[in-house]
Amino acid sequence: MIIKAFSATPFLRELVLYINELTAGVAIEKDEITKLLAVLIDQISRSSHYEMTLLLPNDRRLMLIFEALMANPQLNTNLAGWGI
User: Fold this and answer.
1) Contact 47, 7 (CB under 8 A)
2) What is the spatial distance between Cα 4 and Cα 46, in angstroms, rounded to a whole number?
3) Which pLDDT tens digit goes with each residue over 49-72?
4) Do 47 and 4 touch, CB atoms closer than 8 A?
5) Strand partners, 5
6) Which of 4, 10, 69, 83 sits in a 20 to 30 Å window from 45, CA-based?
7) Of 37, 45, 59, whose CA–CA distance to 7 is shortest?
8) Distances (CA, A) of 71 to 5, 41, 66
9) Which residue has the higher pLDDT, 45 or 26?
10) Kind and range of the H or E element at 6?
11) Which of 70, 64, 59, 56 is nearest to 82 (CA)?
12) Mean of the pLDDT values across residues 17-46?
């Protein structure tokens, strides 16, 4: 499987951390987050991209976990929860 990755500049890293901190459980004005996300998208599109080959697991159990995470990346399951 081929995926695209990008290099995160120090500014991009801090912007992501700031957006995360700003939106963590706090009501934020739509206009403010819209502007910050526009800057984030601009910075990501300007960053240098490169392709990476993602190695797929051979083990059936790991492949089930891989497929579940690809279908739903925000899953928050711990190792015990995956006990397949």
Assistant:
1) yes
2) 14
3) 878 787 889 999 889 998 999 899
4) no
5) 50
6) 69
7) 45
8) 19, 23, 9
9) 45
10) strand 2-6
11) 64
12) 88
Residue with tokens 């910075």: 43
- CA-CA-CA-CA dihedral for 77, 71, 38, 41, to nearest 10: 100
Q: Which residues contact 26 (CB under 8 A, 6 or more apart)?
A: none
Contacts of 4 (CB under 8 A, 6+ apart): 49, 50, 51, 52
Tokens in use for 67? 């497929």
Whole-number CA gyration radius for the chain: 17
Pinpoint the alpha helices (H) of 1-84. 10-23, 30-46, 60-71
Predicted pLDDT of residue 36? 94
